[in-house]
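INFO  loader      accepted 1 record
INFO  loader      residues=123
INFO  predictor   begin
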Amino acid sequence: QVQLVESGGGLVQAGDSLRLSCTASGRTFSRYTMGWFRQAPGKEREFVGAISWSGSNTYYADSVKGRFTISRDNVKNTVYLQMNSLRPEDTAVYYCAAGTVMFGTKENEYHYWGQGTQVAVAS
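INFO  predictor   done
INFO  writer      dumping C-alpha coordinates
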Protein backbone atom coordinates (compact mmCIF):
# COMPACT_ATOMS: atom_id res chain seq x y z
CA GLN A 1 0.00 0.00 0.00
CA VAL A 2 1.30 3.42 -1.03
CA GLN A 3 -0.09 6.84 -0.19
CA LEU A 4 0.91 9.80 -2.35
CA VAL A 5 0.70 13.52 -1.58
CA GLU A 6 1.51 16.12 -4.22
CA SER A 7 2.58 19.72 -3.78
CA GLY A 8 4.19 22.59 -5.65
CA GLY A 9 1.47 23.71 -8.01
CA GLY A 10 0.54 27.32 -8.56
CA LEU A 11 0.07 30.16 -11.01
CA VAL A 12 3.04 31.08 -13.20
CA GLN A 13 3.72 32.98 -16.40
CA ALA A 14 4.56 31.42 -19.73
CA GLY A 15 8.25 30.58 -19.88
CA ASP A 16 8.55 30.14 -16.13
CA SER A 17 9.63 27.01 -14.29
CA LEU A 18 7.94 25.06 -11.55
CA ARG A 19 8.82 21.95 -9.60
CA LEU A 20 6.16 19.56 -8.40
CA SER A 21 6.80 17.12 -5.59
CA CYS A 22 5.10 13.87 -4.71
CA THR A 23 5.90 12.33 -1.36
CA ALA A 24 5.03 8.71 -0.72
CA SER A 25 4.43 6.66 2.36
CA GLY A 26 3.86 2.96 2.66
CA ARG A 27 5.65 -0.18 1.63
CA THR A 28 8.34 -0.68 -1.01
CA PHE A 29 8.14 2.76 -2.59
CA SER A 30 11.52 2.36 -4.23
CA ARG A 31 10.33 -0.60 -6.31
CA TYR A 32 7.42 1.23 -7.95
CA THR A 33 7.44 2.91 -11.29
CA MET A 34 6.27 6.48 -10.76
CA GLY A 35 4.22 8.30 -13.34
CA TRP A 36 2.93 11.81 -13.80
CA PHE A 37 -0.38 12.54 -15.47
CA ARG A 38 -2.32 15.73 -16.05
CA GLN A 39 -5.90 16.66 -16.77
CA ALA A 40 -7.13 19.94 -18.16
CA PRO A 41 -10.77 21.02 -17.71
CA GLY A 42 -13.02 19.17 -20.11
CA LYS A 43 -10.23 16.92 -21.35
CA GLU A 44 -9.06 13.37 -20.81
CA ARG A 45 -6.33 12.65 -18.33
CA GLU A 46 -3.08 12.30 -20.25
CA PHE A 47 0.28 10.75 -19.59
CA VAL A 48 3.15 13.14 -18.92
CA GLY A 49 6.09 10.94 -18.00
CA ALA A 50 7.37 8.06 -15.92
CA ILE A 51 10.49 7.05 -14.05
CA SER A 52 11.75 3.60 -13.17
CA TRP A 53 12.17 2.41 -9.61
CA SER A 54 15.91 3.06 -9.72
CA GLY A 55 15.53 6.51 -11.21
CA SER A 56 17.90 5.63 -14.03
CA ASN A 57 15.29 5.45 -16.79
CA THR A 58 12.69 8.00 -17.78
CA TYR A 59 10.06 8.27 -20.48
CA TYR A 60 8.14 11.36 -21.56
CA ALA A 61 5.19 12.27 -23.67
CA ASP A 62 6.15 14.12 -26.84
CA SER A 63 4.31 17.21 -25.63
CA VAL A 64 6.70 17.72 -22.72
CA LYS A 65 9.90 16.10 -23.96
CA GLY A 66 12.85 18.42 -23.58
CA ARG A 67 10.99 20.70 -21.16
CA PHE A 68 10.03 18.47 -18.24
CA THR A 69 12.31 16.26 -16.17
CA ILE A 70 11.30 13.54 -13.74
CA SER A 71 13.57 12.52 -10.90
CA ARG A 72 13.19 10.61 -7.67
CA ASP A 73 14.85 10.43 -4.30
CA ASN A 74 14.12 7.07 -2.75
CA VAL A 75 15.71 8.07 0.54
CA LYS A 76 13.18 10.89 0.86
CA ASN A 77 10.42 8.82 -0.76
CA THR A 78 9.80 11.66 -3.16
CA VAL A 79 9.43 12.00 -6.91
CA TYR A 80 9.76 15.34 -8.68
CA LEU A 81 8.52 16.85 -11.89
CA GLN A 82 10.68 19.77 -12.96
CA MET A 83 8.72 21.83 -15.47
CA ASN A 84 10.61 24.35 -17.59
CA SER A 85 9.52 26.63 -20.41
CA LEU A 86 5.92 26.33 -19.31
CA ARG A 87 3.20 27.05 -21.83
CA PRO A 88 -0.47 27.94 -21.37
CA GLU A 89 -1.40 24.51 -22.71
CA ASP A 90 0.41 22.97 -19.75
CA THR A 91 -2.37 24.28 -17.51
CA ALA A 92 -3.93 21.28 -15.77
CA VAL A 93 -4.26 19.38 -12.55
CA TYR A 94 -1.16 17.23 -12.22
CA TYR A 95 -1.26 13.82 -10.58
CA CYS A 96 1.48 11.48 -9.53
CA ALA A 97 0.89 7.75 -9.51
CA ALA A 98 2.65 4.54 -8.53
CA GLY A 99 2.53 1.32 -10.49
CA THR A 100 4.38 -1.84 -11.41
CA VAL A 101 4.51 -1.58 -15.21
CA MET A 102 7.74 -0.20 -16.60
CA PHE A 103 7.01 3.13 -18.30
CA GLY A 104 3.29 2.58 -18.09
CA THR A 105 1.33 5.22 -19.97
CA LYS A 106 -2.23 4.23 -19.10
CA GLU A 107 -4.21 5.11 -16.00
CA ASN A 108 -5.09 1.49 -15.27
CA GLU A 109 -1.42 0.56 -15.12
CA TYR A 110 -1.04 2.56 -11.91
CA HIS A 111 -2.40 1.39 -8.60
CA TYR A 112 -2.03 4.44 -6.37
CA TRP A 113 -2.75 8.10 -7.04
CA GLY A 114 -2.17 11.41 -5.37
CA GLN A 115 -4.87 14.03 -4.89
CA GLY A 116 -3.54 16.28 -7.64
CA THR A 117 -1.98 19.73 -7.62
CA GLN A 118 -3.13 22.59 -9.83
CA VAL A 119 -0.81 24.27 -12.31
CA ALA A 120 -1.95 27.35 -14.20
CA VAL A 121 0.23 29.03 -16.82
CA ALA A 122 -0.74 32.53 -17.87
CA SER A 123 -0.02 33.70 -21.39
